[in-house]
């Protein structure tokens, strides 16, 4: 923001001046209108800068809000305000930004469609403009300066590095052919990028504060889970227009935030985890949705069930479940209890709980992975509040083992061709460690500490499983390429606070070693 725009909103500022026995002193609201509104929006919901609301600010890792106001933010347009405001004013402003908005503006089909921006420079191409293996393309999200690097998964050459909306969260989702990728930011922007053309296609704001996205199996629809407003948006992947916006209210009318949305390809449905009601929602997009259990009875309107776009089914659960993991058939969903203790298995076919899960210490099921173990399949999940990894038998739902780690972890990855599971230690003094676990013995065989003191987290494999890519999650960070067998570093790729990496093949084939 330049000094001209800094001064542009005096009218609004004056209306919120607080008089303290003499000279007028600007309260936080006035300071906001004077200094911040032109970039962050008069209603704090974002503009060229991100939304400044608790739902967004709470989730930002990095410097404290007051420090950002004082010193600005490197590699962004956020200037320093140390000379424009006193330290007390900055403290007050930072505190005010963390208070919830009085009113959430409408954000439905009309507003979403109006936010759509298509890239005028985008031109369709018939084939990739590069010669790499399209199935081994790997994306790295760089949260330090809000970019994504597009890498050749064989040579690790960066083919493109493009800007994303501010604060990308969750895994980008590829279309079934691996040509287009969709990326979501916490402020609800969804960006479509053409990997063949190495060009952004466009973007749209599908929510005001969003959680994640899911792609339909046929590649036609992209579902966006929103906290603000309490909705699920379904977009057409073709042109990013709205197909439907579902208001989310439980059976008794209680509104709910959507914690996350998942694709269930064999069921041709999206499955929703809800934060505020003990229900699981399933929204069908296929031609032949099952003919029972829908919230909306289309028969009363004289319609066939196939006439209803996106029919919805609400399943009541015995507990609030807000982080999911699915078995490979997508019949069973494992849900972590919102309280952070325990979980349940719900059978989506019969809509009933079939088992309890012994999962203390806030499991992060969304990061879970599976592999064959003896004559069964196990699922392993880290815990955000406990230095353990739980390994669960997916036939009996019993805990096979609890692996002690050097601290709570966030992400896990493996690959069909690798005998190891990689698990980070994201929190605490050992966040510079990465455990490598043998899939057969369930023992930690090696603990890597490639850059002492630096957070190392999140792993992705190349298509063939030969290399494991590890993020050094720091501003001046890097992606380390490990030989997945010898566990030696073979290449270092400098990057700005890299977070997740995503290999086209592993994602579109639903590799068991990766979260979906
Ligand atoms: Fe995430 C994935 C929820 C905090 C980075 N995170 C996910 C998914 C969910 C989720 C439901 C799966 C979505 C998907 O890929 O479709 N994350 C949550 C939370 O509830 C939590 C604990 C609190 C919150 O802030 O909302 C949380 N997540 C974080 C972070 O603080 C992380 C480390 C940094 C950041 O960018 O915000 C973070 N989450 C990630 C990443 C993925 C992710 C990189 C994708 C992992 C993958 O490999 O697919």
TrEMBL record:
<dbReference type="Pfam" id="PF13442">
    <property type="entry name" value="Cytochrome_CBB3"/>
</dbReference>
<keyword id="KW-0479">Metal-binding</keyword>
<dbReference type="GO" id="GO:0009055">
    <property type="term" value="F:electron transfer activity"/>
</dbReference>
<feature type="domain" description="Cytochrome c">
    <location>
        <begin position="22"/>
        <end position="101"/>
    </location>
</feature>
<keyword id="KW-0732">Signal</keyword>
<dbReference type="InterPro" id="IPR003143">
    <property type="entry name" value="Cyt_cd1_C_sf"/>
</dbReference>
<dbReference type="GO" id="GO:0046872">
    <property type="term" value="F:metal ion binding"/>
</dbReference>
<feature type="signal peptide">
    <location>
        <begin position="1"/>
        <end position="26"/>
    </location>
</feature>
<protein>
    <submittedName>
        <fullName>C-type cytochrome</fullName>
    </submittedName>
</protein>
<keyword id="KW-0408">Iron</keyword>
<dbReference type="InterPro" id="IPR009056">
    <property type="entry name" value="Cyt_c-like_dom"/>
</dbReference>
<dbReference type="InterPro" id="IPR011048">
    <property type="entry name" value="Haem_d1_sf"/>
</dbReference>
<dbReference type="Pfam" id="PF02239">
    <property type="entry name" value="Cytochrom_D1"/>
</dbReference>
<keyword id="KW-0349">Heme</keyword>
<dbReference type="GO" id="GO:0020037">
    <property type="term" value="F:heme binding"/>
</dbReference>
<dbReference type="InterPro" id="IPR036909">
    <property type="entry name" value="Cyt_c-like_dom_sf"/>
</dbReference>
<dbReference type="InterPro" id="IPR051200">
    <property type="entry name" value="Host-pathogen_enzymatic-act"/>
</dbReference>
């Amino acid at each position: 923001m330049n000094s001209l725009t800094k001064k542009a909103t005096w009218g609004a500022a004056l209306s919120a001046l607080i008089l303290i026995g003499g000279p007028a002193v600007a309260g936080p609201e006035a300071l906001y209108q004077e200094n911040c509104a032109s970039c962050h929006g008069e209603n704090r919901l974002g503009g060229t800068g991100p939304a400044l609301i608790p739902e967004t600010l709470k989730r930002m890792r990095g410097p404290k809000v007051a420090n950002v106001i004082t010193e600005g933010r490197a590699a962004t347009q956020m200037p320093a305000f140390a000379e424009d405001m006193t330290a007390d004013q900055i403290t007050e402003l930072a505190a005010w930004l963390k208070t919830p908005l009085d009113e959430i503006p409408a954000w439905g089909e009309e507003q979403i469609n109006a936010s759509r921006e298509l890239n005028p420079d985008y031109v369709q191409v018939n084939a990739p403009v590069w010669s790499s293996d399209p199935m081994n393309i790997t994306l790295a999200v760089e949260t330090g300066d809000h970019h994504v690097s597009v890498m050749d998964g064989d040579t690790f050459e960066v083919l493109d590095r493009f800007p994303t909306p501010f604060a990308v969260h969750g895994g980008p989702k590829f279309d079934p052919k691996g040509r287009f990728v969709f990326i979501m930011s916490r402020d609800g922007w969804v960006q479509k990028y053409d990997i063949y053309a190495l060009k952004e296609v466009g973007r749209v704001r599908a929510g005001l504060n969003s959680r994640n996205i899911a792609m339909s199996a046929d590649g036609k629809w992209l579902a966006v889970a929103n906290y603000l407003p309490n909705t699920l948006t379904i977009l057409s992947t073709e042109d990013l227009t709205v197909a439907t916006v579902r208001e989310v209210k439980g059976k008794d009318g209680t509104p709910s935030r959507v914690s996350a949305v998942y694709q269930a390809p064999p069921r041709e449905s999206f499955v929703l985890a809800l934060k505020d009601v003990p229900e699981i929602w399933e929204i069908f997009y296929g031609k032949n949705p099952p003919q029972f259990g829908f919230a909306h009875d289309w028969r009363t309107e004289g319609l066939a069930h196939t006439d209803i776009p996106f029919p919805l089914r609400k399943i009541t659960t015995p507990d609030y479940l807000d982080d999911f993991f699915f078995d490979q058939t997508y019949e069973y969903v494992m849900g972590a209890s919102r309280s952070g203790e325990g979980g349940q298995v719900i059978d989506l076919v019969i809509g009933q709980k079939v088992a309890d899960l012994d999962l203390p210490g806030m499991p992060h099921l969304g990061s879970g992975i599976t592999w064959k173990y003896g004559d069964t399949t196990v699922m392993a999940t880290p815990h955000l509040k406990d230095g353990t990894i739980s390994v669960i038998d997916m036939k009996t739902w019993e805990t096979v083992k609890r692996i002690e780690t050097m601290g709570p972890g966030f992400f896990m990855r493996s690959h069909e061709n690798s005998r190891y599971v990689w698990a980070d230690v994201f929190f605490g003094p050992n966040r510079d460690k990465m455990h490598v676990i043998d899939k057969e013995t369930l023992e930690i065989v090696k603990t890597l500490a490639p850059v002492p003191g630096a957070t190392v987290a999140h792993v992705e494999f190349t298509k063939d499983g030969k290399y494991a890519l590890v993020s050094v999650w720091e501003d001046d960070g890097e992606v380390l390429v490990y030989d997945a067998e010898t566990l030696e570093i073979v290449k270092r790729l400098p990057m700005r606070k890299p977070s997740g990496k995503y290999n086209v093949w592993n994602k579109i084939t639903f590799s068991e070693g990766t979260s979906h």
